[in-house]
Amino acid sequence: MSPRRRRMPIALLGIVVLALATIAGAYASARHERAIVDDRQEELHTRAVSLLGLTMSTAGARLTDLATLMSMPGASRSEFELVGGRFLGRARLGALWFVGRTPGEVRGNVPERYPLRYALTSLPGPREGYDLAAVPAHRVALRAAMELGETQVTPVVRMPGARWTTLAFAAPVYRGGAIPPTVDGKRRATIGYVVGVYSATTIRLAIGSLVPSGVPYGLRQSGSWIAGEPPSGDALTTSFQKGGHTWVLAIGRPEPSNAVTWAIAISGTVLTIALGLLIWQAARRERYALDLVEERMAERDRAEAELRAAEQRHRLLADNATDMILVFDPSGVATYVSPASRELMGYDPEELVGRQPREFVHPDDTDEVVGARTRVAEQGGTITVTSRIRHRDGRYVWIEARVRGVVDPATGEMKEGQAIVRDVSERVASEAALRESVERIAAAEQRFRTAFEAAPIGMALSDLEGRFIQVNDALCAITGYTREELEEMSFGELSHPADVEREAEMMASLLSGEQSTYWMEKRYVDVVGQVVWVAVHATLVRAADGSPQHFLGQIQDVSERVRYEAQLQHMADHDPLTGLLNRRSFERELNQHIHRVERYGAEGAALVLDIDRFKHINDTLGHNVGDELIVKVAQTLRSRLRDSDVLARLGGDEFAVLLPKGGQQEAEAVAESILASVRAQSVLTTAGRRRPITTSVGIALFGETGGLSAEDVLVNADLAMYDAKEAGRDRAATFSSQERGASRMKARITWAERIRDALEEDRFTLYAQPIVELRSGAVRQHEVLLRMLDEQGEVIPPAAFIGVAERFDLMQEIDRWVVARAIKEMGQQRRAGRDLVFEVNISGASTGDPDLLTIIERELRENEIDPINLVLEVTETTAVANIPRAQEFAARLAELGCRFALDDFGAGFGSFYYLKHLPFDILKIDGEFVRSCTTSQTDQLLIRAAVEIARGMGKETIAEYVGDDETVELLRTLGVDYAQGFHLGRPAPLEQRLARDCVRS
């Protein structure tokens, strides 16, 4: 059962108890009123004491509830004012404060401060920022409340900055809401106080309202009478301890009255209603926060799956290419070679990976090849190199390599090089034959004609005006024209109209002597009107006296290569599911528009829209329905926008639109049109009913602020889109820099710096989730989880910083901290008499970190921990990415005596195959197979197969993401050893989780 389900019955019980107490007090008062006048004094005294104690306890409980609310992560001033405003009026408080706490420093002789953060007041008093430590009575009460963990009351003192005297109730606010068991723990955990201030006049009037007119009474606090006057000697007197003071209530002989009965009933009812509203509001906010975290984690998982699919498609294209594709690192070592190497060089790709390509280059061509690689690394761009490489049988093959470098945008250094290599032996041979025939035209006319006609590429002789004199069969095959038809045409008539002028310029440069040959890629229009891409190499043939005679051209059909390059470019720029531009392309369009805005003035807007409740649709109706919905929305948006508008899919269910024209009015009109068109769509549920679809739209105007980047514009639109969601969804919101300037600045904080600061300031903390043995139901071990604390001590989930840490190579340092801290905690628990088993997640980068193994060995020895109690956990996909390193890491763990767990089993493409190569002790079955196993026969078969394989290898199994009792029973039936999930226990701070689970076990 989740924490929010557990708290509600207890809270409701408190409301019932308060209501029953109110009824009981009213009933007792009524009975006493009916007694004889001689008993009236004792009855009135008893009622007054009961009501006073109940009122003080209730006020303390309300302040404690408000303090618990303010201890929740993300609690803000608006929540304090919303809940405290109701309490302020109904409890007759003169003021309600939220007071912060700044610990003092003994060495620096810096006193502790209690600054006033928020104030709700109906009477003049101190301003926000006032230090309550300046009032001795307040300072003593606040310190006592912090150390005792309960509400404390001040004596009646004058209000700072006002003329009225007050009595203040102070309730401590502990970080996380839980009260630490020790005084030192309470001091460290106290982040502030909730203080309720009563006017002394209000107290006197309230006490006086309890006692009928003519009845003498008095209320004394620690020796001072704060209400009424000391009654005569026949008064009934009662003293009690409350809020750190001794209270004395004295009641003289009363007159019969019903006022106290009504006061009890009304006050109890008001307090009961206020308590119920506060509990309802707190539960509602907690549910919203949990749902939002789950939605973000699901979006991240979908994005990672799409990225893996795209990488697989790219690898398939490379493996099936006819040209050999080569990838090498900055030092020139090959890291990938396509299967075309078998035909080109006679080697399998595996034989070439890890070797220098220059090992196979002809000695005469080595300098040129090495120089080309150096130019690519230093200058970038694409370089074409023609050289000879050694075939397996010893012969040399002429190749043409188009080499380009991939540059890291952050550092400007080359990350890797890529080359497309093709066999041009025939072309080189033809060129050699052509040059020889030109030099010896008189003696080699027949040989030239033979080479001309038999050439595998198109060849042509043309006059100086570009009209064909002679063509070969290959050129006829390329263009579809016969020899006779071509010899009646010119280059210009065969060329695409857009390329005619450029080719004429090249021919003119040959005639003028500026160059002896030229090479260009251009388009021909064949006999049926289709465009054919060709590579043309042309030479001007001169007579012995140097006068130009004719042009000799070589034409090669490169349509397939051009189409392949265009397809790769399209895949790099477009979303594979919808065909829309992807995020990278959209940011490029945004940057271009920003340049136009900077030059010509502000115009246009960017829109970001997100399908409402898409995760629920995806989870309940399946990913196929989710993909169909995304495609349907993309088609709807495409039909609603203008040709000049730019539409893109940013990822998941998020789309973006660039409106290059118009202002706020036009952008809002387009947003309303989008909302209406999406609203008209629906999906079919499993029950056969149509479920309507809505979206939320955020608008960012380019005229809002200056100097924005594409990322800034997307952040602004994204913030506005979340404003629309928070306002109720199915609507649009426009970003305002005045209203959301702080949010935008927060969104641009460098997360890498925050992570480094957290490491330096030790602002990481450990959470734990129980792992339950299914056979006995006992908690046998825990998975240790990482959380980061911000500068105010608020918890940051790992999804917010892990991706940045991996990108900036910070994961190894984080993993070392986590492992060392977990082993130290195991040592402390062992010294307390408890031997615990911890599972600790580490990243793929840390599997090759020798320092991590050194830390593990040292900490195990220093804390006297049995190594078998430490389980290091790596995801299957991470291990598969580098199997040799994972094998070496697991073997080293085995030497130390630790165990190795393979997490997310089943997430990879060849999970069962990799079991043969990956040593492990524990197999954790991926939650994808566990969530729906009670209804999916396929998931049951996969789980059973994993269990049988693990059991046959003598290993244990753990099922993740267990969500209900039905799943627990099924997993037990299938033979799974352990299980974990929110249903069995949610992650909680390590000490709290261990204390709770040890009691449970």
Describe this structure in words.
This protein is of the alpha+beta class. It contains 34 helices and 37 strands. Strand 19 (531-542) and strand 20 (548-557) form a beta hairpin. Helix 1 packs antiparallel against helix 2, helix 2 (37-70) packs parallel to helix 7 (259-319) and helix 26 packs parallel to helix 27.
Summarize the structure.
With 1001 residues, this protein is of the alpha+beta class.
The secondary structure category is: alpha+beta
For the report, how would you describe the main beta sheet?
8 strands, mixed, barrel
Kindly state the percentage of residues in helix. Answer: 40-55%
SS summary, helix count? 34
Based on the structure, what is the oligomeric state of the protein chains?
A: single chain
Beta-strand percentage range: 15-25%
Strand tally is 37
| Cα shape | elongated
Q: How are the strands ordered across the major sheet?
A: 28-29-31-32-33-34-35-36
Mean pLDDT: 80
- Distance between the amino and carboxyl termini: 16 Å
Task: Determine Rg (CA atoms, Å).
Answer: 40 Å
Low-confidence parts, pLDDT < 50 over ≥5 residues? 1-7, 740-749
